[in-house]
Each structure stands twice: as structure tokens, then as C-alpha cells.
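Final report, section 2: Outcomes. Of the targets proposed, GGDEF domain-containing protein is the one most frequently requested by collaborating groups, and we therefore present its record in full.
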Amino acid sequence: MDTYPVHATPPPASSREDLARAWTGAATSSAYIPRAADELEAVLLALVDELLAALHEETGGGLVSVGEQVGSRLVDEGFIDPESLRATIDVLTAGLLGDLGDTPDAELARRTAALLGAMSAGYADGLRSYTLTQQERLKQALFNAMVRAEHSLRATENRFREVFTSSAVGIAITDLNGMCVESNPALSQILGRPHNHLAGRILTDYFLTEDPMPMAGLAGPRPVPGDLSATYRRVLDGEVERVHEQRRLRNADGDTVWVFVAISLLHDGAGDPAYFVTMVQDVSELQLLSDRLGHQLLHDALTGLPNRKHFESKLETTLGQAAPNASITLCFVNLDGFAMVNNSLGHEFGDRLLRTVGRRLEAAVSDERAMVARLGGDEFAVLVEDLPVTPDVNGIIERITAELAEPEYLGDRSAGLGASVGAVRCRAGEMSAEELFRAADTALRRAKSTGRRQWATFHGREDGLARERDALAAELPAGWENGQLTVAYEPVVRLATGNGGHRTVAARPVLRWRRGEESFGHRFCTELAERTGLSLQLGPWVLREACQLLPALREVFADEPEPLVRLQLSRAQSGDADLVRAVNEALRDTGSPPGLLELALDTGALLDEYGDARDNLDVLNDIGVATGLCGFQGGPRELDLMAASSVRSVTLAQHGLGCAAHETASGVLREETERLVRTIAAGGRECSVLDLRTEAEARWWASAGAVTTQGGVFGLPVSPSELASLPDPTRRPANG
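The predicted structure is given below as C-alpha cells.
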């Protein structure tokens, strides 16, 4: 190998650090090198040192070797862009040979050129090796990706095949004409066919075309009507992406199977529709359960008849579908004395009786287009869509009562059946379902009010009045709360006998309801309060109000020894268990003696032993409160009650005996009333009458032996602030 002696050192114009810095700047500005600038500068400084050392070596072979190694190192350090090599040669040429113009050194120039040439050759070899390495890596990566894709595809196919084969849901793949290409075992099992039986067959042939949708009100999902082929066309035409429907199909045994069907499209590689995928789930057991639950929801568990919910739905549907002039009859049937059957013969017999009633009611209207339902308890309903041959309402009720007339037997026990019936017949366009329901209920309540085994039909005018009264009864509690309901006082007058004049001796508390421009009196308010139960709250309130005025009444009636407040109690108030406590509290709070208060208890409540009525009468007498009987009719039991109790007064019922003084009263009524009044007087009781209309009536009652009268012709009620005017005989009602 040749040797080249060194005659001079590299030009000193550029220091090694400046050269490395210049090399770094040129390389990074010409190409992207994935190294930090200061890190790259340190690497290039080391390479500069190697190059400078090579230039000082005397052996030429070492120079070439160093150049090739440095060139290869450049590739390893990220100089893979040819532009970075060009920039490197330019910088090194300028740095190593920059001062040769001033001090020529041919040998240094030759060695520098040889070094840079070797470095370029080493760079080319390194870049070629790098390229081959990258190609090999890419090829290996592509091969690995292909292998993984094949494995993934094979695994996906295996998973799909496993799902397809073992799925409990039937799956069929059909072409766009509906012919089955492939199906799984689950679908064959649903159809009851051998495996692959469907191949080459039209899938829709196994599905039933449903009838029109069933009537609303039945429970459970309903199948979709129409041919399934239309559904496939909707999916193929893009109207819907996928479809879920409930359908029915016929299996190999001819049985109907309820299924839930899902239909979607499979597309080919170009995105065009290629196949239908149909998934079929057997929901027959769920449907049976749904139907069973639906039947239980809409039918009475004991009788099997439709229940109230189902009946109301049927009534609404019937009225909605019927022509406006079509006739509808609705009957409500309520068993009489059913509680006695349960109590005496047991609930088993009672349940049997209810089932019998259901069957007999169905038999009564078996020739009609009708529905029988059990509304609850011992109440049934019969709905009839009237036909030309349907009898009138009386005829339908006669059929019902005739069917129920036969006793029911269970072993050696028997019970007669009786029922009250309320009926309404109207045109379908005249009433809503709610109004018709309420009308039949109103008629039933009217029938029951007249006794057992009675029937009644609906009358619009009577119902209108009853509804108005019901509305007022419901409004009365609010009227009390907002101060519309007040306590007023009307005179209790001692009737004159002989030439003497009438004299006011006490006050009677009465209710007065001012409702806007309307005003309602005591009797009407009491009736409303009895219907809603409000009278139990009003009684103690009226007691407190009246007792608070006892001191003022003692001044008004200073010369009267009798009780100054005479309060008549309703039936509910007479039987109230808290009556005595309310009286004691009212007297204690006002400090008034009990002898100034007289409470008249309802005669009917005492005879019926309603609530605590009997005990209340005895205890009131014991604590010194004067007592009386009101609503007295004069029957033997009432006379016996009067004789057996310590009542001070007897107030005759306003209707019946109270009409004896009317001009239209018969002679028999007058004679019997006079005899009764004498009997009351003979027993040491004061006889009192209510609301006399004229002076003539007052004179007749005085002559018959009545002692006092309350209200009526002797004056209107006054407010507490007007108590001083109460005894004024000149006060008269507006009607005289």
C-alpha cells in the first residue's frame, strides 16, 4: 500500500468546534434529522476529530477506512436524506481546504479529497444497507399482517359459524327473491323440520297471513297483519334499515307458533344488497303467559267474567263504534243481603253464589248481543247492544230477576237470591261511557233506596237535581272553612192559650249558608252535612257557638226558667261517641249551667240504637242537660221510648204529623194527631212543632195541646248581634 507523507497540517482557519457547529447547521437546515441539535453537534464533533486524525496518518489505507466508517456512521445517525450528504461535503470541503489558496498544499488537498470520497462511498454503502434493512422489515411486517388477518378472518368465521350453529334463535340467509340459502338448526327446530330442510325453499311460505288486528283492550302484543313479503320489500327498497315484527308461523305438525322476526340486509363488497338475514325467535311461551296475565288483568278471578276495567273499555268501544241513533241498555245488578250469606253460610258458599249469579246473568241475555261483568264485590253489570227483537227495559229486568229467583244449593244448605237493579237505555250519541256508567249507578242507588229486590230506571231530571245537590254537599265543607256557613238563632215561641198572646221563651240555633247570591236554610244544610259526614264536625261547633251566647240569652230571657237554647241533633250527631265530651267542653269553656241547654236527639237513631245514641241520652240527663226527642212520628215504639226516658220535650216530625194543621189535612190525621198530643202531655212532656206557616195553624196547635213552636211565622233567624230583637212579636218572615 502506498504511503503519503504529510508535509503540512490542516489549515487552522476553522477550529474543530466551529467546523462541527457549521456541519450541524448545514445538515439540519437541508434535511430532517431525528436528533436534538446539541446532541447532533456532539456526535459530529467526534466525527470531525476522527477525520482530522485520519488526515495526519501516514498510511493511505487507514484514511480510506476512516472515511468509509464515517460515511456509514452518518447513515446510522439519521443522515439518510441525500441533501444532508451534499451539505456535509460542502461544509467539510470548505472547512478542511478553505485556506489552501493562501498556502497551497497539494498533498493535503489530495488526502482531503480521498477522505471525502471514501466517506461518500461509505455513506452510499450504509444507505444501501439501510434501505435493504427497511425493505426487509416492511416485507416482514406485511407478511405478519397478512398472517394475522388470515388468523383473524378464520377466527371470525369460526365464531360466526359457532354462533350461527348453536344459537337458540333461528337464523336464515335468503337471496333477494326469498329463497333460503342457509339456515341453522334452531330454525329447523322451531319449524319442526329436518336440518337444511329450508334450503332452496321460499321462507315466507311458512308464515301465516294474519287477520285484521283484534279489538283494542285485549292484553299482550298482537301479530302484524299482511304478507311478510311486503316487509322484505320495504327493507330492500331502503324504507327501513331493519324490521322487528311479531308474526305467527305454522310448524310441521300444523300448530301455530308465535315468533319475533328481525329482518336486515347483507351487502357485497361493492355495497350492493346481496342477501337477507332473517332471525326468528320462538315466543310462544311468552305469548301464552302474556295472554294468561292479560286475561287475569281484564277478568274477575272468581267468576271468570270481565272485570270493571275490561267492561269500561268495552262500553267505550261499543259507544264509539255504534251509530249515533243505535240503542244501548246498561243494567247494574246488586245482590241483596249478600253479607248475610257470607256471615251465616261462609265465604265458600258466598263465592259459589257469585259464580252462579254470573252464569245466570249470562243466561238471561244469552239471546242478545251483550256482555256481563263483575264490577266488584256483589255488584254486576249487563251491557246490551239493542236489536230490533230486544225487549224493553222492563223485559230485560224481568229476565234478570227471573233467572236470579231460583235458590242456590250447596249440600244441605241453600240461599235465595235477590237483587236490586238500576237500568238506563239511551242512544249511543246521547251519553259518553262515563255518563252512561254514572246514570246506571244512579238508577241502582235509587232502586236500593226504596227497599230490597227493587228496580229503577234512570230519569234525567231527577238525576240533574241529585247532581246539583251532590255538588252542593261536596262544596259545603269549603263553605264552612271560608266563613260562608254561620249559626243563626230563630225564636222558640210558647203558643198562646185562651186570650193570652204568644211569647218567645228560647232560641234555637240553626245553620245558614250564604253562597254568593244564594242562601240555604238549616234543614237543607243539615241534609247535605249528613250525606258527607260533615255533621259530626258541625255539631260540636254549633254547641260552642250557642253556649258562648248563653250569658246574652239570659239577659234577653231574664224571666224564663226553661232552657234558653234548644238544639235539635241529626241522626249522625245523636249517635256521635264524642257528643257528651263536646257538651261538657262547651259548658265548661263558657261557665254556663247545663240546665240552660236542651238537646233533642233523633228519635229514629234512638230506636235503631244507632251508634251511642242511647248512652248519650242517658248521660246527658245525668249531667243535668235537658233532653228531648225530635222527628217524632207517634208510633207505638216511639211512645214506649218516650215513656221509658226522662226527656223534657217531644218535637213532632215536620212531615206527616206536622201537616195536621194544614187546611188540606184529613179529619183522620187531625183526630189522631190531637190524640197523640194529649198522650204526650199526659206523659208530662212538652209537645213542640216546627215552622208553622200561619196564625191559624198556631191557634189549631195550641188548641190541640202543643206547647211551643219553633221558627216559621214567628220570625226569621237572627245573627248573634241581633239577639235582643229575637222576642219581638212584630218580626215576620218576608212571605208573612
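The chain has four domains: 13-136, 170-211+220-289, 299-458, 483-724.
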